[in-house]
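Internal tracking record. Fields below are filled automatically when a chain is submitted to the structure queue. Please do not edit lines marked as system-generated. If the sequence contains nonstandard residues, flag them in the REMARKS field before resubmitting.
Queue: standard
Priority: normal
Entity type: single polypeptide chain
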Amino acid sequence: MLPIADPVMEARSQQVGPEGVSALELTADTVRTWLIQREALRQTQVHDFPIFHPAILDPAERNWHNPVVDSCDAVLDQLADLATDLADDLGSIHGDQWYRSGTIAGGGSVTALEILDAAVVVGAENLRRIERILASIRN
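SYSTEM-GENERATED OUTPUT FOLLOWS
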């Protein structure tokens, strides 16, 4: 296996697959989404009536206007750091705190547990999409 810093691997990570996105873009999407979801989780714990952007749950609301300019290595480092930070945050939420909630702008409420579930879904779905993209590039 080649290191990610290898130019060939970097190029593959940036190659757009059949879904119209690259593995790098999907990894960055995970980072960006987890950042807003992490903040939403924090808000459920420190405020009684937080209001959240719909993007914390709805992928259609995640419109990142800035292109990914970081290398694959840099984005993977961000993902690893954020995953660790998110895990640390989750370790501090106990019992009924998981049911503290906020309101999604435009309608509906969401609990901390539902936000966590959405974060897991984003990570898992993007990983599956990345696997498909990389498989299509190899073929």
